Amino acid sequence: MNAGPEHKLCDAPGCRPNPAQTLLLKAACASANVARDFWKRWRAENEPASSGAASVRLLPWIYLRRDELGVSAEDAAVLESIYRFAWITNQRLTGSALAVLATLEHHQIPVLLLKGLPLLAEAYQDIGGRYMEDFDIMLRDEHVEPAVAALAESGWKPARPEAFSVSARRWRHSEELTHLSGLSCDIHWRLLCRPNEPVDEEPVWASRRTILLRDRPALTLSPEHMLVHGLVHGLSWERVPAIRWILDTHLLLRRHTPDWPHVAAEAARRGVTLLVADAMAVYDEILPGEIPAEIRRELARHPVSGRQRRAYEQLTRPYESTSLRMAWDLYLSDWTRARALEEVPPGLRGFLQHLKTYWRVTSIFALPWTFLRKVLSRAKR
C-alpha cells in the first residue's frame, strides 16, 4: 500500500456545490454580519421558488434565519411555504420513526437513528429546519430479517423483492422499506457503502449515545461516527447533489467538539480517507478554519491502496458508470468469508450472482443487457 499518484480533488457536478449553491451555503452557515451579503448575492441571480432540488433542501434553514439575512417579505412568504412543507413532512416522519422504534423495542431489537432525525433533534433544534424525504435506522446484521418481519405487521414492506436476504446484505449496506402511508425508511446494517474490506460495526454500537426525539429517548451515533458518515455520504455522487451535508456538518460542529484523531482513525479503519479528506477540503473552501488543518493534512498523507482509490472513483461518479472492476473488488473483499460459509458458489458463477445483487437485477440473464445499457450510457456522456 502506498500513497499512489497525486490525488486530484473530486470536481464532479454530482459531488460538490456549484458557485450558486456555495453562496447559498455561506448564507446558511456564516455569521449574521456576513451572511446577509451572501444572501443578497445569491438572490440577485436566483429565485427561491425555482432554485433547484439541491438548493431547496437548504431553504427551510434560510427561512429560520430570515431576519438575520434581511429576507424580503415576498421571499419570506415563499420560504415559509417551503418550511411548512418540511415541518409537516418531518412531523409525519418523526411519528413514523417513533412507531418503528417502539415495534423494534417490543421485539428486543436494538436500533440506532441515523442522518436526518438525530440532526434535527440536536443540531437544527427545529422540526422544520431540515428538508427530509425519509428516515434512516441501523440494525445489527443478525437482526435485519427479524426486524423486517416485525415491521411487516404494521404495513412496512421491502421496496425490492429479496432486498434483505443474506446474499443481498453481503454486497449492500442498506435497503429501503416503504409503508402503506407512502413514507420510506432506509434500514442500514453497515454504516457506509462498503467500498473495500468488511468492517466491524461493533465500535459504532459501543459508542452509541442517547438523544431525545419528541421527549422520548432514542439511540444514535457518536459525534465522530456521525461526522465520518456525513462526510462520506455527502461527497458521494448523487443525481441531486447532497450539498446540505455542509450545513449538517456546520451545525453538528457547533453542537459538538469531536475527537479529531478518532475521526481520522475511523476514516482509516474504513478505508475512506480519500473521501473524508476531500470532503473536509470542500468544507474548508466554504467555511475555512472549522476543521483543524492538521487533521486534513494527516488524512491527505495516509497511504491509500489501489482498491481504495478505485472505490473512491466509483463512489464519486454516476451510477450508470460501468463498474465491473468495482464489483469484482467487492466480490473479492468478501470471498474468504463467503467461501468459508459456503454461501456463494466459487468462481464465475459466484461473481455473476454477486453482480446480480450489485446491479439490482432480477436474473443473471439480465446482466448482459444491463451491462450494455451502462456502456451506452457512459458513451453518451
Outline the structure in words.
- 55% of the residues lie in helices and 8% in strands.
- With 381 residues, it is α+β, with helices and mostly antiparallel strands.
- The protein has 2 domains: 19-310, Beta Polymerase, domain 2; 320-380, no CATH class.
- The strands form 2 sheets. It has a 5-stranded mixed beta sheet, with helices on one face. Strands 6-7 form a two-stranded antiparallel sheet.
- It is globular and about 60 Å long.
- 38% of the residues are buried.
- Residues 1-13 have low confidence and may be disordered.
Ordered list of secondary-structure elements with their pairings:
Layout: H1 19-29, H2 32-43, H3 53-56, H4 59-64, H5 66-69, H6 73-106, E1 112-114, H7 116-124, E2 135-138, H8 144-152, E3 156-158, H9 166-171, E4 174-179, E5 184-188, H10 202-206, E6 209-213, E7 216-220, H11 223-235, H12 244-255, H13 260-269, H14 273-286, H15 293-301, H16 306-315, H17 324-333, H18 335-341, H19 347-358, H20 367-380
Parallel strand pairs: 2-5
Antiparallel strand pairs: 1-2, 3-4, 4-5, 6-7
Helix pairs in contact: 1-2, 7-12, 11-12, 11-13, 11-14, 14-15, 17-19
